[in-house]
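Structure representation.

___
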Amino acid sequence: MGLLSSLTNRIFLATATLAMLAIGFAVYFVTGRVIDEAEAELARGLVEAGKLVEQHRTTLVDTFTVEAQLIADLPRLKAAVDTRDPPTVEPIASENQALIGADLFVVTDRSGRVLAALGAELQPGVVVVDRPGIKPALSGQKFNSFWPTSRGVLQVVTVPIAIGLGSPEILGTLSVGFLMDDQLAAQFKSLTDSEVAFAIGGEIRAATVPSADHSALASLLGSEGVTRITLNGDEYSALVQPLLPPAENGGAAAPAALEIGVRPPAGTVSVGPHVPAAVILRSRTERLRVLNELFAGLGGAALLAVILAIGLSYGVARTVTRPLATITAAMREMASTGDLTRKISLPGRGHWEDEDTSLLATTFNTLTDSIARFQREAAQRERLSSLGRLST
């Protein structure tokens, strides 16, 4: 006898398979939608965190730009720079650096020679005309650039120090800036609830993650959109946010150049690995941990539902086949004994009654009653016929 030759087995397998498919599809659909929504929310959070970092950085740049221009217009500083004497300039530079809280404060003369250097690895008397921003400032333009340091990335605003209005005489330059270091990264982390790293020249210079992970983070530089990376066994979603210097004259932000501090041609966009950038990371493992617990509970509930469905399907199959088995057994006995007076007696009524089998049993009992009646009537007619023949 094959597995599917039994009606009980066929009903059981059909209902159990249907239940498992329905429950499995529901679990698959729900988990898929939840994961998709969690991934989308994680990506949106990274984008929002990147915007917050960029807004905060832009605010600092704008503030230092205004302060640098105001300090460059101070008559006292102009007079000191005009002397081209470092001991004369340094006290004034130190005073103004403390006033605005700048991490970098560099003053040069008209030839690009350093007169005061606070917060930079520069010595007075060194010519830094090749430093980003110095040449444009000596030609009368303000300039935003990035200077790499061992502790992070310096965002630098360089403005000219000049006298006169129509054709101003350039006396020198003033460069002020703030350092994007581990401390600022930690501030951004508390602000955005994300890990933050600052990179320049293809290297991670400051970050809230351990230094052992810097080389792995550097591999993300130049990527676009949300990417994934594994650090110390935890999976992170990452977004590389290029640090774009603001454009002059109120225009849109210009793309950062491959060469630090040099603007690319108009209309071009460069997002190479050497572009100054902030890397925003959020732990995918941590944020999906709650979902994993939810999925575990959902899987347990689904397994329990499947077990209950299998048990219920088996019970349903038995309620159908047991009355049929009783009917067929009675039929076989009638066929073997020829006793048509035997009635099919189904089990007593319970909470679950199969009306179809009851109707079949009642119909069969009625049929046997009719056959038995016909047999009695035929026998009676035969007796009457015999009596008639005897009387003649």
